[in-house]
Amino acid sequence: MAKVKTTFFCQNCGTQFAKWQGQCTACKDWNTIVEELVQKPEKSDWKTPTSPKKRSAVPLLINQIDTSKEPRLNTFDGELNRVLGGGIVPGSLTLLGGEPGIGKSTLLLQVSLGLPYKTLYVSGEESQKQIKMRAERVNPNNSNCYILTETKTQNIFKQIETLEPDIVIIDSIQTLHSDYIESSSGSISQIKECTTELIKFAKETATPVLLIGHITKDGHIAGPKILEHMVDTVLQFEGDRNHVFRILRAHKNRFGSTNELGIYEMQGSGLREVSNPSEILISKKDEELSGNAIAATLEGMRPLMIEVQALVSTAVYGTPQRSATGFNAKRLNMLLAVLEKRAGFRLGAKDVFLNITGGITVDDPAIDLAVVASILSSNEDVSIPKDYCFAAEVGLSGEIRPVQRVEQRILEAEKLGFATIFVSKYNKISLQNTAIKIQLISKMEDLVDFLV
Ligand code: TYD
Ligand code: MG
Protein backbone atom coordinates (compact mmCIF):
# COMPACT_ATOMS: atom_id res chain seq x y z
CA MET A 1 0.00 0.00 0.00
CA ALA A 2 1.31 3.44 -0.87
CA LYS A 3 1.77 5.83 2.00
CA VAL A 4 -0.98 8.44 2.35
CA LYS A 5 0.21 11.86 3.29
CA THR A 6 -0.83 15.44 2.99
CA THR A 7 1.20 18.25 1.55
CA PHE A 8 0.63 21.97 1.32
CA PHE A 9 0.67 23.58 -2.12
CA CYS A 10 0.68 27.20 -3.14
CA GLN A 11 -2.31 27.52 -5.50
CA ASN A 12 -0.54 30.29 -7.35
CA CYS A 13 2.88 28.90 -8.17
CA GLY A 14 2.59 25.25 -7.19
CA THR A 15 5.42 25.24 -4.65
CA GLN A 16 5.16 22.44 -2.11
CA PHE A 17 5.48 23.02 1.65
CA ALA A 18 5.69 20.68 4.59
CA LYS A 19 3.43 22.82 6.76
CA TRP A 20 0.93 25.61 6.37
CA GLN A 21 2.08 29.21 6.28
CA GLY A 22 0.39 32.50 5.50
CA GLN A 23 2.66 33.65 2.72
CA CYS A 24 4.21 31.58 -0.03
CA THR A 25 7.95 32.07 0.23
CA ALA A 26 8.38 31.38 -3.49
CA CYS A 27 5.92 33.75 -5.13
CA LYS A 28 5.21 35.99 -2.10
CA ASP A 29 1.44 35.66 -2.48
CA TRP A 30 -0.66 35.60 0.69
CA ASN A 31 -3.27 33.01 1.68
CA THR A 32 -2.64 30.77 -1.29
CA ILE A 33 -1.36 27.71 0.56
CA VAL A 34 -3.85 24.86 0.73
CA GLU A 35 -3.56 21.37 2.17
CA GLU A 36 -3.99 18.55 -0.32
CA LEU A 37 -4.10 14.81 0.21
CA VAL A 38 -1.38 13.14 -1.75
CA GLN A 39 -0.85 9.46 -2.26
CA LYS A 40 2.40 8.95 -4.04
CA PRO A 41 2.02 6.66 -7.02
CA GLU A 42 4.01 3.46 -6.79
CA LYS A 43 4.44 3.60 -10.50
CA SER A 44 3.18 6.00 -13.08
CA ASP A 45 0.02 5.08 -14.82
CA TRP A 46 0.89 5.13 -18.47
CA LYS A 47 2.43 1.70 -18.78
CA THR A 48 5.01 1.58 -21.51
CA PRO A 49 3.02 0.05 -24.34
CA THR A 50 4.08 -2.79 -26.53
CA SER A 51 2.74 -1.02 -29.59
CA PRO A 52 5.18 -0.55 -32.49
CA LYS A 53 4.85 3.23 -32.15
CA LYS A 54 7.08 3.19 -29.09
CA ARG A 55 10.27 5.18 -29.48
CA SER A 56 13.42 4.21 -27.70
CA ALA A 57 15.86 6.79 -26.45
CA VAL A 58 19.47 6.32 -27.51
CA PRO A 59 22.05 9.09 -27.37
CA LEU A 60 22.74 10.48 -30.83
CA LEU A 61 25.35 12.89 -32.11
CA ILE A 62 23.60 16.20 -32.71
CA ASN A 63 24.71 16.20 -36.34
CA GLN A 64 23.16 12.79 -36.86
CA ILE A 65 19.73 13.83 -35.68
CA ASP A 66 17.51 14.03 -38.68
CA THR A 67 14.95 16.77 -38.34
CA SER A 68 13.49 16.36 -41.79
CA LYS A 69 12.07 12.98 -40.84
CA GLU A 70 9.89 14.52 -38.15
CA PRO A 71 6.85 15.41 -40.20
CA ARG A 72 4.32 17.68 -38.64
CA LEU A 73 0.69 16.70 -38.58
CA ASN A 74 -1.28 19.10 -40.70
CA THR A 75 -4.24 20.36 -38.68
CA PHE A 76 -6.07 21.46 -41.86
CA ASP A 77 -6.61 24.79 -40.15
CA GLY A 78 -4.38 27.44 -41.70
CA GLU A 79 -4.42 29.72 -38.67
CA LEU A 80 -3.64 26.97 -36.15
CA ASN A 81 -0.87 25.61 -38.37
CA ARG A 82 0.67 29.05 -38.58
CA VAL A 83 0.60 29.60 -34.81
CA LEU A 84 2.05 26.15 -34.13
CA GLY A 85 4.82 26.80 -36.62
CA GLY A 86 3.61 24.51 -39.39
CA GLY A 87 1.49 21.85 -37.74
CA ILE A 88 1.47 19.62 -34.67
CA VAL A 89 4.74 17.93 -33.75
CA PRO A 90 4.31 14.21 -32.98
CA GLY A 91 4.68 13.52 -29.27
CA SER A 92 4.16 17.13 -28.26
CA LEU A 93 1.88 18.48 -25.56
CA THR A 94 -0.02 21.64 -26.43
CA LEU A 95 -2.02 23.60 -23.89
CA LEU A 96 -4.81 25.90 -25.06
CA GLY A 97 -5.97 28.46 -22.52
CA GLY A 98 -8.68 31.07 -22.65
CA GLU A 99 -11.65 32.63 -20.91
CA PRO A 100 -14.83 30.60 -20.44
CA GLY A 101 -17.06 30.71 -23.50
CA ILE A 102 -14.39 32.12 -25.79
CA GLY A 103 -14.51 29.03 -28.03
CA LYS A 104 -11.72 26.68 -26.89
CA SER A 105 -13.89 23.56 -27.10
CA THR A 106 -15.32 24.72 -30.42
CA LEU A 107 -11.86 25.27 -31.89
CA LEU A 108 -10.43 21.91 -30.89
CA LEU A 109 -13.58 19.99 -31.76
CA GLN A 110 -13.63 21.66 -35.14
CA VAL A 111 -9.98 20.79 -35.67
CA SER A 112 -10.49 17.16 -34.64
CA LEU A 113 -13.47 16.84 -36.97
CA GLY A 114 -11.47 18.17 -39.88
CA LEU A 115 -8.57 15.74 -39.42
CA PRO A 116 -8.16 12.69 -41.62
CA TYR A 117 -6.39 10.85 -38.76
CA LYS A 118 -7.97 8.82 -35.99
CA THR A 119 -8.74 11.37 -33.31
CA LEU A 120 -9.85 10.88 -29.73
CA TYR A 121 -11.67 13.79 -28.15
CA VAL A 122 -11.93 13.29 -24.39
CA SER A 123 -14.37 15.58 -22.64
CA GLY A 124 -14.89 15.87 -18.94
CA GLU A 125 -17.16 18.85 -19.32
CA GLU A 126 -19.85 17.95 -21.80
CA SER A 127 -21.84 14.81 -22.60
CA GLN A 128 -21.40 12.87 -25.83
CA LYS A 129 -24.81 14.15 -26.98
CA GLN A 130 -23.86 17.77 -26.37
CA ILE A 131 -20.65 17.30 -28.30
CA LYS A 132 -22.47 15.59 -31.14
CA MET A 133 -24.91 18.49 -31.34
CA ARG A 134 -22.05 20.94 -31.55
CA ALA A 135 -20.22 18.77 -34.07
CA GLU A 136 -23.26 18.84 -36.32
CA ARG A 137 -23.12 22.59 -36.38
CA VAL A 138 -19.44 22.91 -37.14
CA ASN A 139 -18.71 19.94 -39.38
CA PRO A 140 -21.51 17.46 -39.94
CA ASN A 141 -19.66 14.87 -42.00
CA ASN A 142 -16.77 13.20 -40.25
CA SER A 143 -16.26 9.65 -39.16
CA ASN A 144 -12.67 9.65 -37.89
CA CYS A 145 -13.29 11.34 -34.57
CA TYR A 146 -14.07 9.35 -31.43
CA ILE A 147 -15.71 11.03 -28.45
CA LEU A 148 -15.08 9.83 -24.91
CA THR A 149 -16.61 11.36 -21.81
CA GLU A 150 -14.31 10.35 -19.00
CA THR A 151 -12.30 12.11 -16.34
CA LYS A 152 -10.19 9.36 -14.81
CA THR A 153 -6.78 9.15 -16.48
CA GLN A 154 -6.52 5.40 -15.82
CA ASN A 155 -9.71 4.79 -17.83
CA ILE A 156 -8.65 7.19 -20.55
CA PHE A 157 -5.36 5.32 -21.02
CA LYS A 158 -7.24 2.01 -21.14
CA GLN A 159 -9.37 3.36 -24.01
CA ILE A 160 -6.32 4.81 -25.74
CA GLU A 161 -4.61 1.43 -25.62
CA THR A 162 -7.46 -0.27 -27.45
CA LEU A 163 -8.21 2.59 -29.84
CA GLU A 164 -4.62 3.67 -30.64
CA PRO A 165 -5.56 7.17 -31.82
CA ASP A 166 -3.18 9.36 -33.83
CA ILE A 167 -4.03 12.42 -31.79
CA VAL A 168 -5.65 12.97 -28.39
CA ILE A 169 -7.57 16.03 -27.27
CA ILE A 170 -8.42 16.59 -23.60
CA ASP A 171 -11.16 19.04 -22.62
CA SER A 172 -10.05 20.06 -20.00
CA ILE A 173 -7.01 19.32 -17.85
CA GLN A 174 -8.80 20.74 -14.77
CA THR A 175 -11.49 18.05 -14.95
CA LEU A 176 -9.07 15.11 -15.05
CA HIS A 177 -8.18 13.11 -11.99
CA SER A 178 -5.79 10.32 -11.29
CA ASP A 179 -6.42 7.57 -8.75
CA TYR A 180 -2.98 8.01 -7.30
CA ILE A 181 -3.72 11.43 -5.92
CA GLU A 182 -6.44 11.85 -3.36
CA SER A 183 -7.18 15.54 -3.76
CA SER A 184 -10.05 16.79 -5.91
CA SER A 185 -9.93 17.48 -9.66
CA GLY A 186 -8.45 20.84 -10.54
CA SER A 187 -6.14 20.94 -7.53
CA ILE A 188 -2.45 21.58 -8.03
CA SER A 189 -1.34 18.04 -7.28
CA GLN A 190 -4.00 16.50 -9.58
CA ILE A 191 -3.13 18.79 -12.48
CA LYS A 192 0.56 18.04 -12.03
CA GLU A 193 0.05 14.29 -11.83
CA CYS A 194 -2.37 14.07 -14.79
CA THR A 195 -0.09 16.21 -16.96
CA THR A 196 2.92 14.07 -16.05
CA GLU A 197 1.03 10.92 -17.06
CA LEU A 198 -0.03 12.53 -20.34
CA ILE A 199 3.51 13.72 -21.10
CA LYS A 200 4.84 10.24 -20.50
CA PHE A 201 2.20 8.82 -22.83
CA ALA A 202 2.82 11.45 -25.53
CA LYS A 203 6.59 11.10 -25.53
CA GLU A 204 6.60 7.31 -25.52
CA THR A 205 4.08 6.83 -28.31
CA ALA A 206 4.83 10.00 -30.32
CA THR A 207 1.12 10.80 -30.14
CA PRO A 208 0.41 14.53 -29.90
CA VAL A 209 -1.88 15.61 -27.07
CA LEU A 210 -3.83 18.86 -27.05
CA LEU A 211 -5.05 20.05 -23.66
CA ILE A 212 -7.62 22.69 -22.89
CA GLY A 213 -6.87 24.70 -19.76
CA HIS A 214 -9.07 27.09 -17.81
CA ILE A 215 -7.74 30.48 -16.89
CA THR A 216 -8.07 32.41 -13.65
CA LYS A 217 -9.66 35.82 -13.45
CA ASP A 218 -6.35 37.59 -14.00
CA GLY A 219 -5.79 35.72 -17.25
CA HIS A 220 -3.30 33.05 -16.18
CA ILE A 221 -3.82 29.39 -16.84
CA ALA A 222 -5.46 27.92 -13.74
CA GLY A 223 -3.14 25.61 -11.90
CA PRO A 224 0.51 25.88 -11.17
CA LYS A 225 2.88 27.86 -13.34
CA ILE A 226 4.76 24.60 -13.60
CA LEU A 227 2.03 23.31 -15.92
CA GLU A 228 3.15 25.83 -18.51
CA HIS A 229 6.74 24.70 -18.05
CA MET A 230 5.82 21.05 -18.50
CA VAL A 231 4.05 21.33 -21.84
CA ASP A 232 5.77 22.09 -25.16
CA THR A 233 3.43 24.76 -26.41
CA VAL A 234 1.10 27.18 -24.66
CA LEU A 235 -1.54 28.79 -26.82
CA GLN A 236 -3.87 31.52 -25.67
CA PHE A 237 -7.28 32.08 -27.22
CA GLU A 238 -8.35 35.68 -26.72
CA GLY A 239 -10.99 38.10 -27.81
CA ASP A 240 -13.93 40.07 -26.61
CA ARG A 241 -16.96 37.84 -26.19
CA ASN A 242 -19.21 40.60 -27.48
CA HIS A 243 -17.30 40.73 -30.72
CA VAL A 244 -16.85 38.05 -33.32
CA PHE A 245 -13.07 38.11 -33.63
CA ARG A 246 -10.89 35.64 -31.75
CA ILE A 247 -7.12 35.74 -31.69
CA LEU A 248 -4.92 32.71 -31.16
CA ARG A 249 -1.40 33.41 -29.92
CA ALA A 250 1.49 31.23 -28.87
CA HIS A 251 2.87 32.24 -25.46
CA LYS A 252 5.42 29.49 -25.54
CA ASN A 253 6.43 27.28 -28.42
CA ARG A 254 9.29 24.80 -28.33
CA PHE A 255 8.91 24.13 -32.05
CA GLY A 256 8.36 27.53 -33.57
CA SER A 257 8.21 31.25 -33.07
CA THR A 258 5.81 32.93 -30.67
CA ASN A 259 5.34 35.84 -33.03
CA GLU A 260 2.70 34.24 -35.15
CA LEU A 261 -0.95 34.92 -34.68
CA GLY A 262 -4.15 33.30 -35.87
CA ILE A 263 -7.40 35.18 -36.37
CA TYR A 264 -10.84 33.61 -36.37
CA GLU A 265 -14.36 34.84 -36.66
CA MET A 266 -17.04 33.17 -34.52
CA GLN A 267 -20.03 32.31 -36.64
CA GLY A 268 -23.20 30.31 -36.18
CA SER A 269 -21.44 27.33 -37.68
CA GLY A 270 -18.24 27.49 -35.67
CA LEU A 271 -15.01 29.39 -36.13
CA ARG A 272 -14.01 30.62 -39.54
CA GLU A 273 -10.40 31.38 -40.40
CA VAL A 274 -9.78 35.00 -41.28
CA SER A 275 -6.99 35.21 -43.81
CA ASN A 276 -7.46 38.87 -44.74
CA PRO A 277 -7.96 40.52 -41.32
CA SER A 278 -7.20 44.07 -42.42
CA GLU A 279 -10.04 44.14 -44.88
CA ILE A 280 -12.48 43.13 -42.17
CA LEU A 281 -11.21 45.33 -39.37
CA ILE A 282 -11.59 48.56 -41.29
CA SER A 283 -15.18 49.58 -41.76
CA LYS A 284 -15.76 50.74 -45.30
CA LYS A 285 -17.53 54.04 -44.83
CA ASP A 286 -18.45 56.47 -47.56
CA GLU A 287 -18.43 59.55 -45.38
CA GLU A 288 -15.40 60.79 -43.57
CA LEU A 289 -16.07 61.23 -39.88
CA SER A 290 -13.98 63.13 -37.40
CA GLY A 291 -12.19 61.13 -34.75
CA ASN A 292 -11.34 58.15 -36.94
CA ALA A 293 -7.80 57.21 -37.91
CA ILE A 294 -6.30 54.04 -39.30
CA ALA A 295 -3.12 52.51 -37.93
CA ALA A 296 -0.84 50.12 -39.79
CA THR A 297 0.08 47.79 -36.93
CA LEU A 298 1.88 44.48 -36.73
CA GLU A 299 0.55 41.64 -34.63
CA GLY A 300 3.43 39.25 -34.37
CA MET A 301 4.56 38.94 -37.95
CA ARG A 302 1.24 39.88 -39.50
CA PRO A 303 0.39 43.36 -40.68
CA LEU A 304 -3.02 44.49 -39.51
CA MET A 305 -4.78 47.71 -40.43
CA ILE A 306 -6.78 48.80 -37.41
CA GLU A 307 -9.27 51.59 -36.99
CA VAL A 308 -8.91 53.89 -33.97
CA GLN A 309 -11.81 56.06 -32.85
CA ALA A 310 -11.58 58.94 -30.44
CA LEU A 311 -14.22 61.20 -28.95
CA VAL A 312 -13.11 64.41 -27.29
CA SER A 313 -15.82 66.43 -25.57
CA THR A 314 -16.05 69.09 -22.87
CA ALA A 315 -15.95 67.53 -19.42
CA VAL A 316 -19.29 67.70 -17.62
CA TYR A 317 -17.84 66.97 -14.20
CA GLY A 318 -14.84 68.54 -12.55
CA THR A 319 -12.45 65.70 -13.26
CA PRO A 320 -12.24 64.86 -16.94
CA GLN A 321 -12.78 61.23 -17.84
CA ARG A 322 -10.30 59.19 -19.81
CA SER A 323 -11.34 55.85 -21.06
CA ALA A 324 -9.67 53.48 -23.48
CA THR A 325 -10.91 50.19 -24.92
CA GLY A 326 -8.29 47.97 -26.48
CA PHE A 327 -5.50 50.42 -25.69
CA ASN A 328 -3.43 50.98 -22.57
CA ALA A 329 -5.03 53.76 -20.50
CA LYS A 330 -1.67 54.89 -19.09
CA ARG A 331 -0.28 55.24 -22.59
CA LEU A 332 -3.37 57.29 -23.55
CA ASN A 333 -2.70 59.65 -20.64
CA MET A 334 0.90 59.97 -21.72
CA LEU A 335 -0.06 60.79 -25.31
CA LEU A 336 -2.56 63.37 -24.05
CA ALA A 337 0.14 65.00 -21.95
CA VAL A 338 2.43 65.12 -24.97
CA LEU A 339 -0.35 66.67 -27.08
CA GLU A 340 -0.97 69.27 -24.41
CA LYS A 341 2.66 70.20 -24.00
CA ARG A 342 3.94 69.93 -27.57
CA ALA A 343 0.96 70.84 -29.69
CA GLY A 344 -0.63 73.35 -27.33
CA PHE A 345 -4.00 71.65 -27.08
CA ARG A 346 -5.95 72.30 -23.91
CA LEU A 347 -7.19 68.81 -23.27
CA GLY A 348 -7.20 69.15 -19.48
CA ALA A 349 -10.87 70.09 -19.37
CA LYS A 350 -11.96 67.53 -21.93
CA ASP A 351 -13.28 63.99 -21.66
CA VAL A 352 -11.37 61.66 -23.96
CA PHE A 353 -12.72 58.28 -25.02
CA LEU A 354 -10.70 55.97 -27.21
CA ASN A 355 -11.81 52.80 -28.86
CA ILE A 356 -10.03 50.26 -31.01
CA THR A 357 -12.67 48.77 -33.26
CA GLY A 358 -13.20 45.04 -33.67
CA GLY A 359 -12.73 44.31 -29.96
CA ILE A 360 -9.03 43.65 -30.23
CA THR A 361 -6.30 44.88 -27.94
CA VAL A 362 -3.22 46.43 -29.47
CA ASP A 363 0.14 46.89 -27.80
CA ASP A 364 2.18 47.65 -30.89
CA PRO A 365 3.64 51.13 -30.22
CA ALA A 366 3.16 51.99 -33.90
CA ILE A 367 -0.49 52.70 -33.14
CA ASP A 368 0.50 55.88 -31.21
CA LEU A 369 0.42 58.16 -34.22
CA ALA A 370 -3.07 57.01 -35.22
CA VAL A 371 -4.26 57.53 -31.63
CA VAL A 372 -2.87 61.07 -31.61
CA ALA A 373 -4.34 61.76 -35.05
CA SER A 374 -7.80 60.54 -34.03
CA ILE A 375 -7.75 62.67 -30.87
CA LEU A 376 -6.67 65.74 -32.86
CA SER A 377 -9.32 65.02 -35.46
CA SER A 378 -12.10 64.73 -32.88
CA ASN A 379 -10.91 67.75 -30.92
CA GLU A 380 -10.82 69.97 -34.01
CA ASP A 381 -13.83 68.28 -35.58
CA VAL A 382 -12.02 67.84 -38.86
CA SER A 383 -12.08 64.48 -40.54
CA ILE A 384 -8.99 62.66 -41.68
CA PRO A 385 -9.15 61.63 -45.35
CA LYS A 386 -10.16 57.98 -45.36
CA ASP A 387 -7.21 56.94 -47.49
CA TYR A 388 -4.66 58.14 -44.90
CA CYS A 389 -3.03 55.76 -42.46
CA PHE A 390 -0.36 56.00 -39.75
CA ALA A 391 2.52 53.94 -38.41
CA ALA A 392 4.83 55.53 -35.86
CA GLU A 393 5.53 55.72 -32.17
CA VAL A 394 5.24 59.04 -30.34
CA GLY A 395 7.96 59.95 -27.87
CA LEU A 396 7.69 62.05 -24.71
CA SER A 397 9.10 65.14 -26.38
CA GLY A 398 6.61 64.87 -29.23
CA GLU A 399 9.09 63.33 -31.63
CA ILE A 400 7.78 60.80 -34.13
CA ARG A 401 9.82 57.67 -33.60
CA PRO A 402 10.59 54.88 -36.06
CA VAL A 403 8.91 51.49 -35.78
CA GLN A 404 10.10 48.04 -36.71
CA ARG A 405 9.34 46.43 -40.09
CA VAL A 406 7.95 49.62 -41.52
CA GLU A 407 8.19 48.41 -45.11
CA GLN A 408 5.89 45.51 -44.41
CA ARG A 409 3.33 47.96 -43.03
CA ILE A 410 3.66 50.25 -46.04
CA LEU A 411 3.15 47.36 -48.46
CA GLU A 412 0.06 46.20 -46.59
CA ALA A 413 -1.39 49.72 -46.70
CA GLU A 414 -0.59 49.95 -50.38
CA LYS A 415 -2.25 46.60 -51.04
CA LEU A 416 -5.42 47.83 -49.37
CA GLY A 417 -5.54 50.94 -51.50
CA PHE A 418 -4.42 53.63 -49.05
CA ALA A 419 -3.10 56.79 -50.70
CA THR A 420 -0.83 58.13 -47.95
CA ILE A 421 0.95 56.63 -44.99
CA PHE A 422 2.55 58.76 -42.26
CA VAL A 423 5.77 57.32 -40.87
CA SER A 424 8.76 58.62 -38.98
CA LYS A 425 11.49 60.45 -40.87
CA TYR A 426 13.99 58.28 -39.00
CA ASN A 427 12.76 55.01 -40.46
CA LYS A 428 15.04 53.66 -43.14
CA ILE A 429 12.90 52.90 -46.16
CA SER A 430 14.36 51.49 -49.33
CA LEU A 431 11.06 50.97 -51.13
CA GLN A 432 10.84 52.66 -54.48
CA ASN A 433 8.05 53.47 -56.91
CA THR A 434 5.29 52.73 -54.46
CA ALA A 435 1.78 53.67 -55.42
CA ILE A 436 1.25 54.88 -51.87
CA LYS A 437 2.70 58.25 -50.83
CA ILE A 438 5.10 57.86 -47.91
CA GLN A 439 4.82 61.00 -45.80
CA LEU A 440 7.82 61.39 -43.52
CA ILE A 441 7.33 63.43 -40.37
CA SER A 442 9.63 64.04 -37.45
CA LYS A 443 7.60 65.83 -34.80
CA MET A 444 4.07 66.28 -33.55
CA GLU A 445 3.81 69.77 -35.06
CA ASP A 446 4.25 68.29 -38.55
CA LEU A 447 1.21 66.10 -38.03
CA VAL A 448 -0.82 69.05 -36.77
CA ASP A 449 0.11 70.99 -39.92
CA PHE A 450 -1.13 68.19 -42.13
CA LEU A 451 -4.38 67.48 -40.36
CA VAL A 452 -5.68 70.75 -39.02
P1 TYD B 1 -17.12 27.00 -26.24
O1 TYD B 1 -16.27 26.39 -27.28
O2 TYD B 1 -17.95 26.09 -25.43
O3 TYD B 1 -16.20 27.86 -25.26
P2 TYD B 1 -15.11 27.35 -24.18
O4 TYD B 1 -14.85 25.91 -24.40
O5 TYD B 1 -13.92 28.22 -24.45
O6 TYD B 1 -15.68 27.64 -22.85
O7 TYD B 1 -18.07 28.01 -27.01
C1 TYD B 1 -18.25 29.32 -26.71
C2 TYD B 1 -19.33 30.08 -27.41
O8 TYD B 1 -19.27 29.99 -28.80
C3 TYD B 1 -20.72 29.68 -27.04
O9 TYD B 1 -21.19 30.60 -26.09
C4 TYD B 1 -21.52 29.80 -28.28
C5 TYD B 1 -20.56 30.20 -29.33
N1 TYD B 1 -20.69 29.42 -30.57
C6 TYD B 1 -21.06 30.05 -31.74
O10 TYD B 1 -21.28 31.25 -31.78
N2 TYD B 1 -21.15 29.29 -32.88
C7 TYD B 1 -20.91 27.96 -32.90
O11 TYD B 1 -21.00 27.31 -33.96
C8 TYD B 1 -20.53 27.33 -31.67
C9 TYD B 1 -20.26 25.85 -31.63
C10 TYD B 1 -20.42 28.08 -30.54
MG1 MG C 1 -15.35 24.28 -23.18
TrEMBL record:
Job of this protein: DNA-dependent ATPase involved in processing of recombination intermediates, plays a role in repairing DNA breaks. Stimulates the branch migration of RecA-mediated strand transfer reactions, allowing the 3' invading strand to extend heteroduplex DNA faster. Binds ssDNA in the presence of ADP but not other nucleotides, has ATPase activity that is stimulated by ssDNA and various branched DNA structures, but inhibited by SSB. Does not have RecA's homology-searching function. Plays a role in repairing double-strand DNA breaks, probably involving stabilizing or processing branched DNA or blocked replication forks.
Record's protein name: DNA repair protein RadA
PROSITE patterns, A to Z: RECA_2
HAMAP family (alphabetical): RadA_bact
GO MF, any single term: zinc ion binding
Swiss-Prot/TrEMBL keywords: ATP-binding, DNA damage, DNA repair, DNA-binding, Hydrolase, Metal-binding, Nucleotide-binding, Stress response, Zinc, Zinc-finger
Domain of life: Bacteria
A GO biological-process term: recombinational repair
Free-text note on domains in this protein's UniProt record: The middle region has homology to RecA with ATPase motifs including the RadA KNRFG motif, while the C-terminus is homologous to Lon protease.
Binding site for ATP: 98-105
Ranges for region Lon-protease-like: 351-452
Protein's gene: radA
Motif RadA KNRFG motif, chain ranges: 252-256
Record-annotated RecA family profile domain positions: 69-215
N-terminal signal peptide: none
One Gene Ontology CC term in the entry: cytosol
Family per similarity comment: Belongs to the RecA family. RadA subfamily.
